[in-house]
Design brief:
74% helix; 142 residues; mainly alpha
Length: 142
C-alpha cells in the first residue's frame, strides 16, 4: 500500500474488528465476563464518551505503522515485529492492570491476550501491505 496514512488507518480498523470478534467469542464462552463488564467500574455503552473506546485501535494502528516504517529493516518479518511489540505492550500492562484493579484474572488475562493478538496481526498486515524494504520517498517523509 503506497499511502502510509491509509495503511495506518487500515491496520487500526483491522485491529478494531479483531477485538470486537474476540470479545464476542470470549463473552459467549465465559458469560461471567459479561456480568463483570456490566459493573459500575465501566461506563455504559450509551455514554457518549464510550465512542472514544473505538478510537484506541485506530491510534494504535497509526503508532504501530510509524514504528514499523522506522524500524522495519531490523525485523526478519512482520511476525517478529508483532511478537516483540506485543510482549513489550502486553506484559507490563498485564502486571499494572492485575495489580491495580479488582477484576478477575480471566478479564485482565483476556485484555492481555487481545492486545498481543492485535499487535501480532498488525505486524503481519504491515509486512504484507507495507513491505519490508522502505520506498525511497518514505525516508524523506519520516
Amino acid at each position: 500500500m503506497k499511502n502510509k496514512y491509509a495503511l495506518a488507518i487500515s491496520v487500526g480498523i483491522i485491529m478494531l474488528i479483531i477485538s470486537m470478534a474476540l470479545s464476542m467469542l470470549l463473552t459467549m464462552t465465559f458469560p461471567s465476563l459479561q456480568a463483570e463488564y456490566e459493573t459500575p467500574a465501566f461506563r455504559p455503552w450509551d455514554d457518549p464518551l464510550m465512542s472514544l473506546f473505538f478510537l484506541y485501535p485506530i491510534v494504535l494502528g497509526i503508532v504501530l505503522t510509524y514504528l514499523w516504517f522506522k524500524t522495519r529493516s531490523s525485523w526478519k518479518n512482520g511476525l517478529d515485529f508483532g511478537i516483540a511489540f506485543g510482549i513489550l505492550m502486553s506484559v507490563p500492562m498485564f502486571i499494572v492492570n492485575y495489580s491495580s484493579f479488582n477484576f478477575s484474572l480471566l478479564m485482565v488475562g483476556s485484555w492481555t491476550v487481545f492486545g498481543f493478538i492485535n499487535v501480532l496481526v498488525a505486524g503481519m498486515v504491515l509486512e504484507k501491505l507495507g513491505g519490508l524494504t522502505p520506498p525511497s520517498f518514505f525516508h524523506l517523509l519520516l
